[in-house]
Fold these 3 entries.
Entry 1:
Amino acid sequence: MAGLDQLATASKVGRTTIIRLENGETNPHGSTLELLRRTFAEAGIAFVESNGQGEGVRFSKRPEERERG
């Protein structure tokens, strides 16, 4: 699971913790969620609050900007 390993390394959150979060087996600490949010933000992913059509995620950078980092 390369994606999981990359996320764990970049966020400094353990693989097991991420898996347990994804499976709904644990309630995360606020600090853990913040580490994950920052990691996604650095990768160009933004979390969208409810805007009448529900919550979600989107790319905050264009593809060419993501490639440059």
Entry 2:
Amino acid sequence: MFDKIKKAAEDHGDKIAEGVDKATDAIDDKTGGKFSEHLDKVDGMAEEHLGDDNP
């Protein structure tokens, strides 16, 4: 099961990172920017680990 999830993340990491970005933007809007710093960290980590630049 873990191997399937890992492969899906490798194959579709850019789309997952994009979804995380959209979700954190929505949360940021709903909370009035109260947690922007934390959400930016989440976006950065998702992009670092899942984005296009990650082989």
Entry 3:
Amino acid sequence: MRGVAVALHRTLGLTLAGFLIIIGLTGSVIVFFGELDEWANPGLLKVQPGNDYVDFLALRENLQAQDPKAHVYGVVFPENTDDAVTFFAQGAIDATSGEYLDPGYDEVFADPYTGRRLGHRLWGDFSFDSKDLTTFVYFLHYSLVLPEEFGELVMGIVALVFAADCIVALYLTLPRRQPREAQRGKTFLRRWKRSWQIERGGSPFRIVFDWHRASGLWIWPMLLIFAVSGFAFNMPRTYLAVMNKVTNYVDTHALPVLDRPVLHPAVDWDTALSLGKTYMEKQAHKYDFTIERPSSLIFRRETGIYDYRVQSSRDLAEVPNYGYTSVAIDAMTGKLHTVELPTGLYAANTFTAWIKALHQARVFGLPYRLFCSALGLMLAALTITGVVIWYRRRTARLRRPSSQTNLSPET
């Protein structure tokens, strides 16, 4: 059994090595994505505060009218008085041919006081322009340089395989079975203690091996959490299907896609916003939570749904510029479709909200963010040391007779 586990850990580790190094290094950077993005792009993301905001929904229409190739489908309301207002865009659909047009960008920024267009960018586009570098690093983290949907699928599978490898790795740290005579006076925890330590005065290979095993054990719970949450982020519909097998789980991002997108919703944007506020207030009264501020309004033509989100007392602390308390509104009837509360309604949603918040370092303040940044570096280092261990053993096997090739330190 142990031999099978060793072979499986080696195979999975080598297969995932390149992915994990990229994930770890980029993850250590994007922990501070918001600050880095604002530092690199003040002309896009920051404005001089004024007196009153313009009508954001009218501004959305104006921005869409400026480019017939763009469908401006969402607005993220400013959190701070000096924040620009952000709009999401996607390709419009040609009314005659039904073809998707390409505006060349998916984010538009405007001054919330004057309505002036500040600029736009394509999330994850690679260029040496400052507006693209930060989002490219973020995109690389969850989609590599692949087309977004395919890249998310690949990285979602990577996350699942990594979760499995974490379990195999934990098994390999457990003490080997020994005859009862050899175990006399040594409890399981006492024998396992060795796996948590680095042997002093050992050979360089012994130190590398001990560090790989011990450091992996110390951060093992977080590695598993990050793997499972990575799966939840990248494959939301599959995650929804899995969770609903055992418990109730709601995710407005994973609603069924319609056969044909809704191009002309019966419910207009102003009505959707009004309905969203009304429905949210009713839910706040029903489920006893406090609405702190509006977050966004998004029309998803693929599902025929308006998604109205707020920051509320049900959100986990320190959510930067985005709330996860939402009501989904049917764009054709105006009826309430789905309610999603991050915590306190369904156990599965609370669990998912926590692992996602831990993954994105949205809780526990700066100390935890620094920890997550260090964790990304440790993941890369764990992967590299794992490759070094494999290479050293492989080299030894090739150089020595089969009877003398056991270079493995005892585990």
